[in-house]
């Protein structure tokens, strides 16, 4: 099990706090410090869909030029953008038992962990 994201992201903080409070010591992969791997992105996109992984609601997306947004209109373009701008990746990404779970909601994690 591993949690991926950016440590100062509010949603990532909530997920990490929930996991810790429920006794789960989960390794954390910091996109900014440890980078993002293209093969990992393709794997997550294959399972969750590139549209779900690309965060079009965040500040980073809103600050992009129209040309950059248009270039992310397919999987290859979205992956290129996520490699260049990891903060446009939906956070957190929880990898558990070979499955990827995007975002955090307490009910979602309760279902996942049977808490």
From TrEMBL:
Pfam families, alphabetically?
Answer: ArsC (PF03960)
- Superkingdom field: Bacteria
**SUPFAM superfamilies with a match to the protein in the record:** Thioredoxin-like
Regarding protein family, the annotation reads: Belongs to the ArsC family.
Listed name of the protein: ArsC family reductase
Organism this protein belongs to: Thiobacillus sedimenti
